[in-house]
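Lecture 7 notes: from sequence to structure.

We start with a single chain of 446 residues. Read the sequence below before looking at the structure.
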Amino acid sequence: MGKIHERVLRDPLYGNISVSGPAIMALIDSPACQRLRRIRQLGMCSSVFHGAENSRFQHAVGVMWLMHRVLSHWREHRFIKISREIEQAALAAALLHDIGHGPFSHALEHTFSSIDHERLGRLIIKHNLAPIMEANRLDPQLVLSIMEGTYEEPIYHELLSSQLDVDRMDYLLRDSLYTGTKYGVFDIDHIIFNLRPFYDKGSRRWVCAISPKGIEAVTTYIFSRYFTYWQVYLHHTVRANEVLLRAVLKRAQYVYSQDPEAMELPSNLRFLFDTSLEPDSASPTFIEAFLSTDDYDFFHAIKLWMRCSDPVLADLASRFTNRVAFKAFDHPGDGPLFNRIKKQVQTMYGDDWEWYIHEDTPSNKGFYSIYEPGKAAPIRVLWNCPEGWREISRVSRTHAISALSETVSRPLLILTKECYQKIKSWLSPEPIYQSYLDPEFETFLN
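Now the structure, written as tokens:
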């Protein structure tokens, strides 16, 4: 018998993850994939949830494992024929779906370049990872077609990127574990058991669907995403720290543009400040330089900037390093009060006041999209009707799923903590819980 190519990874969420196939193992070992170990999955969430130190690499491996579990379940129950080639391509697409993420993940996306992580990821695969795939008899174009949704059968792309996909399922469960919260917990085993391939007669393509027995499990998944976003990813202090991080980097860009010698800058970050490299073109030079950066480079640079001769950059860098976070609170709206707050900031920080006041509007952009032909694929539930399926919002025992399709936003105003203390008395008191306090206990609190 030949040697079995298999590796076992010990995962804190799923236990043992078995990895087989030379192409997948070679991709895992590639520098581009190993770099994801040095990039936080949750960006600045660790500033609030101190356990949120999990990496993009852990997430990438987890998504690949869930893809493997779904495809293995389908093959075991003979729901659909899956060739070895397609299976390996789908696993590679799952493993590499976030390969284009930069330092601090979403927190810094578009700060230095207009290229999103998905497009950059595809370019990394073409320029850097295609030779590894070809050397191990895996077609990179097949992998890319699954990622982009251009493969003839959309079922594999839907498994990776849709409203019910292995990417979302992994990050909700994993981020819940590492943040110590329970908002992202749902029955992953029941969902995988009830997930089905479905041949859609209208499009004549294989797509994903859920059996009626899985409706409640999927409903819980949808709501877990809603609660996790508002309680973790869009937490007001997390947003304040992301704003502070972007302020540090934008001030560094400004200082560098005025006098490159005025600040220390690690050589491998210089490409982000040197406009001659034209980062928006995503040239091979830019890609190679991008792959040399991770969270550690930026932490090091920001620590250096604490000693910068520019007082604003030094102050912002010190606040970020020492977690002297900005304060985020509900925006009072345009009007006399907002103008009064801006004047207070000007009084405290002089000509540089605009670096110390920020507006931010976190938004869910709709946690579920009601089905419209030609737009996002719905979560299909197998149903006894001419089409063979119904959208989950139509057959669930709660109408709340439909409400999640509405976009909800929360405008925030973000200031330094010392400035917030100056203007705090101008704001309306928060009404939550106040009317329920026992008068004697309220006196004790004050």
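The CA atoms of residues 64 and 94 lie 5 Å apart. Keep this in mind for problem set 3.
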